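Lab channel / #folding
Pinned by the channel admin:
"Please post every new chain as: sequence first, then the structure tokens as a reply. Keep commentary short and put observations after the output so the thread stays searchable."

First post following the new format, from NK:
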Amino acid sequence: MDSSRQSLIPSYLYSNSLKNRFDFEKLAVNQQSSYDTLLSSLSESPDVASRGFVVQAPSEPGKIKMFSPAAYAACAVGGSLSCGSTHTGITPLDVVKCNMQIDPAKYKNISSGFGVLLKEQGIKGFYKGWAPTLVGYSAQGACKFGFYEYFKKTYSDIAGPEYATKYKTLIYLAGSASAEVIACVALCPFEAVKVRVQTQPGFAKGLSDGLPKIIKAEGVAGLYKGLTPLLGRQIPYTMMKFGSFETIVEMAYKYAIPTPKEQCSKSFQLGVSFAGGYAAGILCAVVSHPADNLVSFLNNSQGATVGDAVKKLGMWGLFTRGLPLRILMIGTLTGTQWGIYDAFKVFVGLPTTGAAPPVAAN
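Reply from TO:
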């Protein structure tokens, strides 16, 4: 093209930078280049955007890449916030429940339990053990949710795309069980202090004096003597909590909600998370209740064994003592936890949990 003709053509039609941007022939040859890739390439060009060919999408700063260390860290923070805040918030219910398990003759039911506690210890009695509850369940929540997301992805990668989808429920169960083992080790010392403070008047005021008192009397091992029943309580509970939640949410979007999840508003998705969590919590309470009775009994009775607990409580008492209150407590607790956890995930740019099979690595 001679210079006279070239001068009649706008310079942006033959500039080298845009020639590279608009190399349609190469894009057409490359069969794997999608239309979205082309639009993305065009939108990134300052020259093109300034001339109105493509309107750039608004940027979304702060997004966290899925399955990255930052994503797992964010899930740990969300889990810590959800578990620490909710368990601390229901401390009055927990105090009454633990006392009903330890002394059913005195704390006969929910209403009388609250009455006895108020009469003997006042309002302060309802919040005994709040500090070990806050610290312990914050640590437990961080490990539980953070490692669940990690193990779920890891086990999906090991299984491969086909089996990860086919056996997704097993992956949910294995991932949650693995995460809860770590979470229980983090929780156990604080759970031991919490139960003593709540059920033994005069033992200690809270975490700061209760923890060293147990260590002085029984050594560090005294903080972990309830680990086995705690694992027995928490692992089935967590497997039910995550496995049933994932399944309930998936079924809800598949059969009950006419709109695909990705087209629902974030507030609607969070409502589904709360409802699914509440239903899962009821199942959790029933499955884990016998072990919960054992944890309370062993932490309250120095030198007691599982056999002693079964003998004193009886099999019926082991499964039913304090169960209605625990269903109310755990249902509300679990639903709220999933709501807070998924709300935090949305806040940092991650999707809500559930309604999709585990993603395996390519």
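NK: Residues 228 and 295 are 9 Å apart (CA to CA).
TO: also worth noting, The two ends are 48 Å apart (CA to CA).
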